[in-house]
Design goal:
InterPro entries: TPR-like_helical_dom_sf, TPR_rpt. The protein is an all-alpha fold. The protein is built from 15 helices and four strands. The longest helix is centred in the C-terminal third of the chain and has 28 residues, at about 425-450.
């Protein structure tokens, strides 16, 4: 669902939850949650969506976009803007440097991925374990074609080794489906997730977390395909398994609630969607401090807040949206830093909320911070930065401060000259903005002179 409403992101080992391990299906401990050895099993339940989007100030009814959670932690292409498709002190969060494994939010561990060599191409051979890690790294980096090639090679190797009906093959097919979902190949992803569900039910247990993980992804995919009845059935079954295995008040329970909330949202039930996201938020608040991967849990909590904020914007409850986005922003900075794409997206949506609430000064402040974060993150003044500059100038106009707009645009032009060639489209657009502002100032001056005659 993407990420992050919602939120759907560069993972460090602790910014995203670990890989799904097909061999771990033990019962919950006495507290109703899994012990540390089973925390990785929660990975595949992370919602695959985000309700947040690039905001347009000219359209009150701007639709909420669907985005892959891949964008939740990845930097993406240099110069691009975040995809349409998240308070504690910033220094409070810790990150472990111990693990060198590449983590991915929704990838299943393939039980038979050993040191045996696998041919990826005529020139490339890797061990199964290294191939799995390379596939996850490519997925995290948004290199979907490469990731798909790696995961598919691993799937073929698992089929050759174990035959089609084996848990490792089910996990491998699940991973191939994840990549197709990230690529927007929803029909292909649906078919593969359904196949993974069938294999996992046959080779494991129908109440295993592995089955629930694939059901959760299958349901999310069917929501994207507008197959709401089938999606509801899948997500209900995944929720039942999650509650049985991990308890109602667990991170896993919160993740399944988010998937249900997304279904409600896509079917137009905004009140039900918001209420369900709030239920999930309450669980995240209760469990994050004791979670084995607090950064990842906190990131999911902020995604939930952003999803709530996006629904509040949709309902034109801008003051409430401002509160949700502000809380998410404080927490995101603590986990991700001040220039992460998720922070940039939240600033964009927060500024939109402020502008619709007619607090143009606060909106302007958000856009200024957003532009600085974009330049810092992408190391270039991109077209996305240029669009943010336009939004700043619109706020200056609302504040009747064309001098401020001119000064800000001139500063941007000076910065661009240190990064871009003179004939860059961004430089040309910025010069056109400056000319437009100067013309408006000239008209205002002429109007004032006429009034004094």
């Amino acid at each position: 669902m993407s990420s992050s409403m919602f939120t759907t992101s560069t993972p460090t080992a602790t910014e995203v939850v670990g890989s799904f391990n097909a061999g771990r299906t033990g019962p919950p401990n006495g507290s109703g949650s899994f012990d540390g050895s089973n925390d990785e099993a929660l990975a595949s339940f992370t919602p695959e969506f985000s309700l947040m989007e690039n905001r347009s100030l000219n359209d009150d009814n701007h639709s909420i976009g669907l985005t892959s959670s891949a964008d939740r932690f990845n930097r993406g292409t240099i110069g691009s803007s975040p995809t349409k498709k998240t308070c504690m002190p910033g220094g409070f969060f810790w990150r472990s440097k111990a693990s060198r494994k590449v983590m991915s939010q929704d990838v299943a561990s393939v039980g038979g991925a050993s040191e045996a060599m696998i041919s990826v191409s005529s020139k490339l051979r890797m061990s199964g374990r290294d191939l799995h890690e390379a596939a996850k790294a490519s997925l995290n980096a948004g290199e979907y074609a490469k990731s798909l090639s790696f995961f598919d090679s691993l799937r073929e190797a698992q089929v050759q080794r174990f035959g089609h009906m084996h848990p490792s093959v089910g996990a491998a097919i699940h991973n191939v489906a994840v990549v197709h979902l990230r690529m927007g190949n929803n029909e292909k992803a649906e078919k593969l997730f359904a196949e993974a569900v069938a294999i996992r039910k046959e080779t494991l247990s129908s109440d295993s977390l592995e089955v629930a993980a694939s059901l959760s992804k299958l349901g999310s995919t069917r929501v994207a395909l507008k197959k709401f009845d089938e999606a509801l059935s899948d997500l209900r079954e995944a929720t039942r398994i999650a509650r049985y295995k991990a308890g109602t008040n667990s991170k896993l329970g919160a993740q399944t609630l988010c998937n249900m909330a997304y279904l409600y949202f896509q079917s137009g039930e905004l009140l039900a969607a918001e209420a369900t996201f709030r239920d999930a938020l309450d669980i995240y608040r209760a469990v994050w401090s004791s979670d084995a991967d607090r950064d990842s849990c906190m990131a999911q909590l902020t995604d939930c807040l952003c999803n709530i904020g996006s629904i509040e914007n949709k309902r034109k409850r801008y003051s409430q949206a401002i509160s949700s986005f502000n809380e998410a922003l404080d927490l995101q900075r603590g986990v991700m830093g001040s220039d992460h794409p998720r922070v940039i997206a939240t600033l964009d949506n927060l500024a939109f909320s402020y502008s619709k609430n007619r607090d143009y000064t606060a909106a302007l402040s958000c856009y200024k911070e957003m532009q600085a974060a974009q330049v810092s993150h992408y190391n270039i003044f991109s077209e996305a930065c240029c669009e943010t500059l336009r939004k700043q100038n619109l706020m200056y106009e609302k504040l009747k401060n064309l001098n401020g707009a001119m000064e800000t645009t001139q500063e941007a032009l000076l910065l661009q000259k240190t990064m871009l060639p003179p004939d860059s489209p961004v430089v040309i657009q910025t010069k056109e903005m400056l000319e437009s502002i100067q013309k408006k100032m000239g008209r205002q001056s002429s109007s004032r002179n006429l009034r004094h005659i």
